[in-house]
Amino acid sequence: MVKPCREKVLQQENVYCVYDEAKIANFSPEMLSEHYWQKHNAVSGSAQGRGTTWFISHQQQQWVLRHYYRGGLIGRFNKDSYWFGGQKNTRAAREFSLLLTLEQLGLPAPQPVAYRVKRQGLFYRADLLSTRIQDARDLVGILSDQGLDESVWADIGATIRRFHDHGIYHHDLNSHNILLDRENKVFLIDFDRGEQRAAKPSWQQANMERLLRSFRKEQNKIPGFHWQEQHWHMLMLGYRQSQ
Question: Which N-terminal residues, if any, form the signal peptide (predicted)?
């Protein structure tokens, strides 16, 4: 049974934080900065994407710290500043809330730990701290090295179906945001701009089409990428059989 989130709010001038007291003790806003963890020698690694994702080891817990960055053309001119339309509408607050929903539903995804919003006039910047999936790699990294059994492809499809059946919309469902741990258990990550909505075939199909484009893109980009169209059919078989 999932423990209830002990959600706490901490506000200091223009900094607004929410954290789960059950997961993080003696919280301070500085914990949403990589510099804090670097000073405490608690950074265990990092990964590069749109920005740097930091892996944190703290009191036998493994976390992921991510700053919100803009993508696309606008990101070239404004890398991390967003229009402020209320705390509940910030990217960090919305993702924290969705991760909390996923945790309560028992879906395989990171759990929310804390978020921070720094307001600057009409704009804000934000950071999110969540749990790290232990001993897991994303599909792109795995398929760059090796193939997967048919049963694993089916499990990937069945897992995505679980999220869809609960109305969980993943804004950027791609092969980088699907992880497998050592036992090949499937996890979805990065729910920025995701939401829970009415389960409808229209957006669910669009989600799957986006994922398919992602596999094809990586296949064209990475020599020896262990993915073929037949693997998509295996994935979709698992997706449909879970209905």
Answer: none
